[in-house]
Design goal:
By secondary structure, this protein is an all-alpha fold. It has one domain (4-355). It is built from 14 helices and two strands; from the N terminus they run αααβαααβαααααααα. This is YedE-related selenium metabolism membrane protein.
Length: 360
Amino acid sequence: MYNFFSSSKGIILTGLFIGIGAFLLQFLGNPANMGICVVCFTRDTTGGIGLHRAEIVQYIRPEIIGFVLGSFAAALAAKEFQPQSGSSPVIRFVLGIITGTSALVFLGCPWRMVLRIAGGDLNAVVGLFGFAFGIFIGTRFFKHGYTLGKSMPISKKAGYVFPLLMLGLLLLLIFSPEKDGSVYNGLIYYSQKGPGSMHAPLLISLGIAFIVGIIAQRSRFCTMGAFRDIFLFKETHLFSGLFALFLAVFILNIIAGKFSLGFENQPIAHTDHVWNFLSMLTVGFAAALAGGCPGRQFFSSGEGNNDSATYIIGLFVGTAFAHNFGIASSAAQIGPHSIFAVLFGLFICFAIAFTHIKKN
């Protein structure tokens, strides 16, 4: 069956839709320069179910749920739902933790990095250089035979588990709504101030994310893959989609008067360039070793890939760690343990890379 979204026009359309959708979600209530942030929204969701107690970032985000359910629906329709697992699950779990902690030192995932640049945040340009360099390091290991091994087919029932978990989170959100402005309604947590209190209407967020999940599954959209393919193959197919995402948000920010060029006074961002660079270098390196950026891992989990689901569980744990142990940055400065977390994560990434080279 012909897959339009795998074509050059299809990947560009995917990037444009994600960019327009992200801008619309910002306009309707999501935080500035954070229409869609996979790691931040994972962090908010962990707070929503009580895995951390940072009251300003607690809300079960329907966007990440929509990614999985949309990808799941697309994979079923295209007969691409092929559950698999077994490729170094514990290592993928650790890479998810490293991604979560390091991204929250930067204050955003690769998608938010692009959204921040499109809003004029030059701190995110520093992060972009780090992210690209981290992926470049990963590709050097690819050329020397790095691999986490081969995933094996598993039962379809096992592939249904993670989408069902996401559906469970959605049901929690729907049937346990915020009551009387309280932080805790007896089942889940809701921020009353800060980024977690800022969100677009549930059904709109879920609907946009569901469509993103469908088209991203069909197009194989991935920020890490965009740079990996350039470094390894000089191929710009995936990068054209990423650039389209940037261009859509950049133009819409200009039209709406939301573009503000500079380093200072950017929404939910700090100006520590060294750690903006090194934290995103670690994110890029970890994403390369895991085989996909955080967004791509959510889409793959909807296809039944339990290796990606294991990475996402690590991402949940990592984002909770980031706030429980003083790793996450604030808009004013990096966290008290940010430096240790980034350097230790980078060390672990190198250890994983060197110990999984399969040929001389």
